[in-house]
Amino acid sequence: MAPPPSDARFPVTEGVLAAMAISLRGCDELLPQEDWRHKLARSEATGEPLRIKLGFDPTAPDIHLGHTVVLNKLRQLQDLGHQVVFLIGDFTSMIGDPSGRNATRPPLTREQIEANAQTYYRQASLVLEPSKTEIRYNSEWSDPLGARGLIQLASRYTVARMMERNDFHDRFKAGSPISVHEFLYPLMQGYDSVALRSDLELGGTDQKFNLLVGRHLQAEYGQEPQCILTMPLLEGLDGVEKMSKSKNNYIGIAEPANSMFAKLLSINDELMWKYFALLSFTSEADIAGLKAEIGGGRNPKDAKVMLAREVTARFHGTAAADAAEQDFQNRARGGVPDQLDERRLSGAPLAIGTLLKQAGLAPSTSEALRLVEQGGVRIDGSAVSDKALKLTAGTYVVQVGKRKFARVLLS
After folding, report:
1. Both 198 and 111 in a single domain?
2. What is the pLDDT of residue 100?
3. 68/44 Cα distance (integer angstroms)
4. For 52-82, how does the pLDDT look when each residue is reduced to its tens digit (9 = 90+)?
5. 327 vs 260: which has the higher pLDDT
6. How many Å apart are CA 403 and CA 336, to the nearest integer?
7. Do 66 and 193 share a domain, yes or no?
8. At what angle do helices 300-316 and 284-295 cross, to 10 degrees?
9. DSSP-based three-state secondary structure for 400
């Protein structure tokens, strides 16, 4: 049963209201709000911290800024004194999350999962306070569940409810295959909440159904149901699609400071405010003031620099953020970055298209030649227009577009 909406033993104090405001900042939904307010009031009155869960499936080795939207919220709640649980879905990764997909997701192997999981928490620790974070793997309780336990778990949820999920409903209507094992994913994610006795689970808006399954299963197992908090999905650098490595519109939290800073400066003016809301720890009042200044004629670039400095400093330190800003200004004046990645190539004389591809400056030879044709390639500061150019042995500073540079040592 859900807790009562009010309880005289647990008054709603100014501290509770402040915690509610922090919980609601930037979120898409907090359900049910009254239940969460009651949990906060009870926690304050009893001194018992709430258990707040966030799960990640290690489907890739790196975390990008889109992932940090919910990590930032988790850190805010951690700073309020609550117990955060960073859950690595090593078991559920083998099923594959079908959320938002129009086809069955290929499951990962155990080796892939273990390799990815090794770097996950190290990167998440750049946002969370490691000493106050509980790390769990859902194979701890999922593996021992066994076939009998899995059947019993499946009996607590109906097919009709499962088909209410938009992606399942749409795929069924379109005649696209849905594998039975995909129904297990939301069940197992929900069972994680039972095993952890979570009070609140966080996730992106695409995870709402799965989070509600956890709430349902906790009630089925006689526990107080968790509340759920969903955060908006962050658009990538293109300003259209959600941030994703597969769409190459992402900013990785482990990528070099100069690259992170420059990418943040490249977002459009409208998207900048969403990045401020979801990625910045600047107060809402200060952000509103800054927005008013921009509306009054201040250059939007000033705000982007502030955002880029804050985010870059969070992951690389203040000194690196300062250096990244200086590097960006140097590039804007047409200069070459202070530090260049080196690429050692052989086969001279080498065609310009082949060189750009082998140096990792273009995804293919045809794309490299298109960039040459468009005037987007420079060798030692001079624009290249000849697609038939062949470079002899030597050392070259190669620039593609505004941000890609490399020192190529060709032999």
Report:
1. yes
2. 52
3. 27
4. 999 988 776 678 999 999 999 999 999 999 9
5. 260
6. 10
7. yes
8. 150
9. strand
Strand partners, 137: 88
**3-class DSSP state of 345:** strand
User: Can you tell me the distance from the alpha carbon of 30 to that of 20, in angstroms, rounded to the nearest whole number?
Assistant: 10
Q: Last residue of a domain, which of 307, 332, 357? A: 332
Q: Quick check: 342 and 409 in contact, CB under 8 A?
A: yes
Q: CA dist 191 to 99, 149, 336, 392, Å?
A: 17, 11, 53, 62
Helix, strand, coil share (%) of the chain residues, nearest 5: 50, 15, 35
Residue 43 CA: distances (Å) to CA of 27, 37, 109, 193: 21, 10, 41, 19
For the record, the structure tokens of 58 come out as 């290690």
Q: Which residue has the tokens 């994680």?
A: 192
| pLDDT grade for 384, boundaries at 50, 70 and 90 | confident
Helix (H, G, I), strand (E, B) or coil at 357: helix
Q: Work out the number of other CB atoms within 10 angstroms of the CB of residue 268.
A: 12
Asked whether the whole model's pTM tops 0.90, one would answer no
Q: Which domain holds residue 37?
A: 14-231
Question: For residues 376 and 371, what is the distance between their CA atoms, to the nearest angstrom?
Answer: 5
Task: Assess contact for 224 and 1: CB atoms under 8 A.
Answer: yes
Residue 248 pLDDT exceeds 70: yes
Residue 191 shares a structural domain with residue 78: yes
Which residues, 6+ apart, have CB-to-CB distance to 179 below 8 Å? 104
Whether the Cβ atoms of residue 185 and residue 92 lie closer than 8 Å to each other? yes
- What number is the average pLDDT over the span 6-28? 90
